[in-house]
C-alpha cells in the first residue's frame, strides 16, 4: 500500500480548514481549559497495545512493518525475520509478561485513586 505524500498533505490541509482550530498558536490561544480539568489532582494517560512489543517507531508499526523500504520494515526483517515466519499477529503471544506488568500498574493506579478520593 502506497500513499501519495502530496495528496496526504492536501488532505491534512483540507482537514485543518474545516476544523475548529487553525494551524497556528494564535488560534489555539482561544481554547479555554474546562474547570473540571483544572481541578484534577492526578491524571494518567497510557497509550499501550501490541505495537508496544517491538518498541520501535510508533503505534504505526503494525502498518509500516509491511511497507517495503520503511524503517519499520527493515527493522522487522533484521530483528524478527521475514513476515511469512513472524508477522504482526505473532507479537500477540509475547504480550503475557507485559500484561502482568500492566495488572501491577493498574493496582498502583487504583491505590493512588482511592487515596485521592479520601482527601
Q: Which descriptors apply to this entry?
A:
119 residues; mainly alpha; 0% strand
What's the topology here?
Elements: H1 5-18, H2 25-28, H3 35-39, H4 61-64, H5 71-80, H6 96-118
Structure write-up:
- This protein is mostly helical and about 120 residues long.
- It has six helices and no strands.
- It has helices at about 5-20, 25-30, 35-40, 60-65, 70-80, 95-119.
- It starts with a helix and ends with a helix.
- The model has no long low-confidence stretch (mean pLDDT about 85).
Q: What number is the mean pLDDT?
A: 83
Question: How many E strands?
Answer: 0
What is the element string, with H for helices and E for strands?
HHHHHH
Please identify the structural class as seen in this structure.
mainly alpha
- Percent helix range: 40-55%
Largest sheet: none
- Radius of gyration, taken over Cα atoms and rounded to an integer in Å: 21 Å
Oligomerization status of the protein chains: single chain
Strand content bin: under 5%
Summarize it.
The chain has 119 residues and is an all-alpha fold. It has helices at residues 5-18, 25-28, 35-39, 61-64, 71-80, 96-118.
